[in-house]
């Protein structure tokens, strides 16, 4: 598995039905642009405006000693509060509010866009009560830094539930615990089950849980986690199929419920 943590945190029940599906954006049914690059090849991710909104998670005790201390990946998603990140539920379920740090664009022990304290986290009851692999996605609110909002500093991708698995290729960017720079791979997701999707990308090892799957339109359509907490081999990773439960969780996180 990519990463393991299992302790209760703020939750909400899973909700299903037509009302939830109406919350999905119209972009979720559109055909996205394809990211450019060779498929199934993993390489170091270059620092640019796309990777600066993806970062590493640390325990709060590593604020002054970042190098070698990251354990999972998260990314900024657009929200009205301009302060929201998405990751895997198993990455944040074991911490208290204020017990984690998010460092966007992290490289070689440095925080080019600052060290941000993670506040309230949002997980579904499916994960908190049963560690249900179909609920392995979470959101967290990040506190302001020096009077500025996180999204104002690095931007954010759109969280988009309801997309068809494999409709287009996606770019996956994450932070292996054994490396101090992020890695990047492009490939087309495939169906693993009705509730899980998979992607073949080499070298996505421990630490890459929470890595976003981003299509060519800048939409987050997957997050490494889910089956086997993201996968028990480095070359195959999984994500929950982002459906009604994920859409409702995002709605709660953006409304502060």
TrEMBL record:
PANTHER family: SERINE PROTEASE
Keywords per UniProt: Signal
Listed transmembrane segments: none
Signal sequence, start to end: 1-32
Keyword Signal: yes
UniProt-recorded name of the protein: Trypsin-like peptidase domain-containing protein
InterPro entries: Glutamyl_endopeptidase, Peptidase_S1_PA, Peptidase_S1_PA_chymotrypsin, TRYPSIN_HIS
Organism whose genome encodes this protein: Streptomyces camelliae
SUPFAM superfamilies associated with the record: Trypsin-like serine proteases (SSF50494)
Entry annotated with the keyword Signal: yes
Database matches in PROSITE patterns: TRYPSIN_HIS
